[in-house]
Amino acid sequence: TSPRASPAPINNEEEQVDAVQKPKNVRKRKRGDDDRVRRPMNAFMVWSKDARKELAKQDPSVHNADLSKKLGELWKLMSEEEKRPYVEKSESLRAIHRREHPDYKYQPRKPRKSDSTSSQDSSATG
Q1: Higher-confidence residue: 88 or 7?
Q2: What is the pTM of this model?
């Protein structure tokens, strides 16, 4: 009988060190750590900030994405009268923002390019 080949040992020590020193899924910065000026909250964001906490208290096992969907549904069901305090709050936040940052101009971030080109390939054939 022939002897079985054993798997080749890893000779690249740098790969082993990198795997130990660089944990995956670690953010470099937390949200809000940067110095950029953020947009003022709109009425939905003002309302959802507190409503999200309440929904999360009721059922802590619900994922954030599901909470967001539920909040959107609840907001759509609210009457204009129910939304009015949040609209007024957002308008006051916008006014404060305008005073504090008179030269502010919203500049959306450019979308990140994905590694896969499959979406580009399918749109090129249309």
Answers
A1: 88
A2: 0.60
